Amino acid sequence: MLIKRPADIRSSEITDKKLYLNRRDFVRTAAGTAVAAATGVLGAEAFLRAAEPAVHGRKLANVQKSPFSTTEKLNTWEEITTYNNYYEFGTDKESPSMLSRNFKTEPWTVAVDGECNKKAVYHLEDVLKGQVLEDRIYRHRCVEAWSMVIPWVGFPLANFIKRCEPTSNAKFVEFTTMYDPAQMPGTRLPPAFGGLHWPYVEGLRMDEAMNSLAILGVGLYGEVLPNQDGAPFRLVVPWKYGFKSIKSIVKIRFVMKQPLNTWQDQAANEYGFYSNVNPDVNHPRWSQATERRIGEFFKRKTLMFNGYGAQVASMYAGMDLKKNY
Ligand SMILES: Nc1nc2c(c(=O)[nH]1)N[C@H]1C(S)=C(S)[C@@H](COP(=O)(O)O)O[C@H]1N2
Ligand SMILES: [Mo]
Fold this sequence. Notes:
By secondary structure, the chain is α+β, with helices and mostly antiparallel strands. The chain has 10 helices and 13 strands. 18% of the residues lie in helices and 20% in strands. The strands form 2 sheets. Strands 1, 4, 5, 8, 9, 10, 12 and 13 form an 8-stranded mixed beta sheet that branches.
């Protein structure tokens, strides 16, 4: 995600991961005071050490295959765990792999609130109880015009929503990420250094949340989620830009009004509520027509709804997707 960029960067270069607050470039080009400030906040580790793939975690048992999986070539464990967007652990792609290592994800609770009958604070084990875990190999398209293919493990969000018994007033679902400055150095960054308004919030319209493609992800490559990928559980909505797939969820709230999601709040001219992948609606500062699959050299054409139109396009029939971006 890119909020600011130096005026001399051409938009065609925007997707180059080295350009935005990358440790090396940052150290090379930023004023000394900025480096000192950010080093103080994020820790010298963020600048001195290289990204490290996640150590392997617990295997998840009885994972079923999903008919919704793509057969495209998977991105590697190393790619998926060293190239992350997770601003709570730094604004560049490598920091989350380094700075989230000691993030505590057990025990974990999630508060269910708002327009539903089963308001409660649930232990994650109870959220998972009775859920059939599935392998869901999905394309993952970031608004910064890169993509990956990720073998998630998760279960349909709809299954959990039904258990919460939303009332007829529930028109949207709002999700909130953990906010813990003691554990999340990125949340201590002032906005001038890329910090966001915390906590990170995302939302889906009720029918989107109930769509069978939307899952709560608890793992990847058959193992529990690494911290940098949103442990212990996160949303995965593959027809939308990556930022909709909120990580480390601590609250799920059923609401009547469309939630103000973090990136819209941050830059309403650049990010909307729907954020469906759409090659015809460019970001104001760069094109969405193509994408770079991490690990590939040539760019690919971006597909409408990230290639998931057959499952999701009908939800937007009659909507102007250029206005509702
Ligand atoms: N809480 C939180 N969730 C987040 C983000 C974030 O910064 N904070 N970044 C989003 C963005 S922009 C993307 S592309 C995906 C990246 O997921 P991945 O690192 O598992 O590939 O996470 C999304 N979820
Ligand atoms: Mo993203």
